[in-house]
Amino acid sequence: MKNQPLKALALIAVLASGTTAFAVQAAEVSDVLKAGANKVQAAKSAQETVDGIADKTDGLLQEFKQVNKQIESLRVYNSQLERQIASQKQMMAELEESIENATIIERGISPLMENMLKGLKEFIALDVPFKKAQRQEAIEVLFDNLDSAKFSAAEKFRQILEVYDIESEYSLSLETYRDLVDINSDGSEVEVDLLRIGRVALMYQTKDKSQTGAWNKATNSWETLGSDYRRPVDHGIRIAKKLAPQDVLEMPINAPETAQ
Description:
Layout: H1 3-126, H2 132-146, H3 153-170, E1 174-181, E2 190-197, E3 201-206, E4 212-216, E5 221-224, H4 230-240
């Protein structure tokens, strides 16, 4: 019985040594696991670093590509600007030449415009006397504009051409209007309806339609027409006022003059 305590002690010693060995092994396993975890963490950190570098590299690559595109766009733009500058230089040279020529042209255009107005004034004086005061006044205004610094030479020339166009349109138009006319050549004016057919005929008719007449280019005076023309002239006036459809009219037209 005395040996039992010894056995118990020996068993305890064995258990203690086993526990110590297990503790050592556990510590070693813990160290191994810890080392493995450290490696995993290090690998993770390294991967994150690699991913970060890859992202930065990709970003730099995209930025590089974008910069290249911008550089190419700038090259195209600069090339276009160079062509525009060359074109502008050519235009400047042409403008300088035009300015030099314009001075010469302007010296010659002023007498031309004056002669055009004089010719038109003479033409109106010899023409059928429709709206004569209005047309003569337009010419006088243009004569005043010739001496005015308010208008450029181009604008003065445009105004003259505009009057020429208006006079040209008179030859192709049908018109009626009311005016005071000295139909009896005694200085007394009578209000009548005038009918103009181009420049080939100019007739009048009193408001009560009792008297009808026409301008005689041969005598440069008004002459009274017979009653046969009362209805045709009245119908022509209605056509000019767009109160009747266009129709063939029998009018007193002077025979064309023989060319000299």
